[in-house]
Amino acid sequence: MSLNLNLESLAANAVSILQPRLLAWIVGGYAAYVLVYRAFLYPRFFSPLRNVPGPPLGNPLIGHYLTIVQNESCIPQREWAKKYGPVVRMMGVMGKERLVLLAPEALQQIMVRDWLEYPRPQFMRDVLGLVAGHGLLTVTGDVHKQLRKAMNPAFSIPNLMAQTDMYYEPIEGLIDIMKAKIKAEPIPEVGRIFPVYEWMGNVTLDIICDTAFGYKTDCLHHPENPLAAAFHRLLDLQSGPNLAKLVFLLAIPGAPRASRSAFLYRHRWLIGKLPVFYGLEALVEALFVIRGISKQMLKEKTAELVGMGGGAADVSTKRDIMSLLVRARRAEFEAGRGAEAMSDEAMVDQVLTFLAAGHETTATGLSWTLWLLANDPESQRRLREEVTPVYETNPRPDYRTLKSLTWLDCVVNESLRVLPPVPLTLRCAEKTDHVGGLLVPKGTLINIPIRVINTWKEVWGEDAEEFHPARWLNLPPAYNAAFSQFSFIAGPHGCIGKTMAVSEMKAVLVALIANFEFAPAYAGQVAHPATAITMKPEDNMPLRVTRVAGKAQ
Ligand code: HEM
């Protein structure tokens, strides 16, 4: 008995001495594996991608991370593609390999044919889920197919045609405000400098809220409106370093869920106390406000539809995003599948997705178009010549009229090509696969550099990076309709709002160009595209705006 006890206590003592050592060995061994093998040896000597051309591998710990976040979006990838061709290997942190792909065949395989095997990587879904809700942008597979099917009617051509007229109330508000501000200047003839991105953000937010959710925000007249103010704060936080911080924080188990909790909102001051989290307190606050307003929109719409504010026929014919969501949920309940119906929280996520994806991208696209026109007076003059007679006949041109304006189409296509609002996206190989004859190991991150694809000299020629709307009148022989201008990508995850965005941009441009002339705010002004999810102008894009010559001041 006593021998047994001694043996047991001996064993217990041995384990308690060994355990910390064992743990230290395991942790040390794993760290050595990550640092020595994964970060250093594997990419240099063992990876099947080791012979893919690309820039020198750089620091094994951070790879090309600093080059990417410290430069303008996609510029390093563009330089590499010029030097090494349409397939480039670059390094992420800790030896994580990334492939940069431009060739149409590779894009077809990844984004269209085998899209289910190349989903958005988890960290990207976590970040998008946080800032734009867990909706179409984050789901994949069958859930994605189902949701997309439910949402498609909102973006059908007949629905968009019926919707176009709704763009004009905010647009007319914008024109009146700009006219009044110019008139109030000491010398109205020299115009006024407008932070163009801010105004484009207000008008597109008003448009999406009204068309998608039947909710009047009037951010144009009330920029202090809580929704507009929260979006401004959120967008101000968009930057490469902040994005990297978010990716890092959301990798902590449980963090994606915690980031949406009311508890975190109530204790956000705690985040503010830690310098490493700088900026995230404001993010949590802005997201909480946006979620709250989305909830309110949902509540009002449900009450309107269920309480028959509109009447049965109205309920079944309404095709705005919110009505479709409410109706899809009701159909699940009526079919006895209440358990599968979207929860309130999931519905709010969908609202958030369309709010975020549907307004800031379009605002960024409009701002860059005005910037490019401000720097190309001849294209601007030609556009004015085309749109003025249309605008003077009817200041609310319909969908077909907008579509029929040739030069306007060239300008919008060219602007979205040269300065795409979403400059880059990512995919992750879910299985080991061959892409263009290359063995791509499972887990490889694939970098789809939209801005580089759009300005690839092999397709667009030597002046590919320049703004020349006329090229759309005579497309180059290598042009591929699906893959040469990739601003909305292609395949099942392609932008659902593409036609709406283009039509909306055109409606805003017709009114702006018919009324105002745009020029750089000062000599030597250069563009400042942000390195973030969207390529918004970092400086709010100041431009000098004057009334069109001959119009009343
Ligand atoms: C100029 C404006 C726009 C641009 C450049 C743009 C671009 C894009 C791109 C590149 C994607 C793919 C992202 C990825 O897979 O990584 C995307 C997806 C998406 N966009 Fe847009 N977008 C614009 C406007 C809009 C508008 C107006 C809406 C809605 C009202 C919208 C809603 C969406 C949604 C819901 C998705 C996810 C689609 C899916 O995965 O099924 N976008 N957009």
From TrEMBL:
Xref: Gene3D superfamilies: Cytochrome P450
Keywords on this record?
Heme, Iron, Membrane, Metal-binding, Monooxygenase, Oxidoreductase, Transmembrane, Transmembrane helix
Q: Return the InterPro entries for the record.
A: Cyt_P450, Cyt_P450_E_grp-I, Cyt_P450_sf, Cytochrome_P450_monoxygenase
Q: Matching SUPFAM superfamilies, A to Z? A: Cytochrome P450 (SSF48264)
Keyword presence, Acetylation: no
Biological or metabolic pathway of the protein: Secondary metabolite biosynthesis; terpenoid biosynthesis
Q: Which GO terms describe its molecular function?
A: heme binding; iron ion binding; monooxygenase activity; oxidoreductase activity, acting on paired donors, with incorporation or reduction of molecular oxygen
**What parts of the sequence cross the membrane?**
22-41
Q: Which residues form the signal peptide?
A: none
Q: Which GO terms describe its cellular component?
A: membrane
**Main location (coarse class):** membrane
Q: Which cofactor does it need?
A: heme
Compartments, as annotated in UniProt: Membrane
Where, in this chain's numbering, is heme bound? Answer: 495
Does this UniProt record's set of keywords contain Heme? yes
What is an example of a Pfam family matching this protein? p450
By sequence similarity, the record places it as follows: Belongs to the cytochrome P450 family.
Record-given protein name? Cytochrome P450
The protein's organism comes out as: Mycena metata
Q: What is the lineage of its organism?
A: Eukaryota, Fungi, Dikarya, Basidiomycota, Agaricomycotina
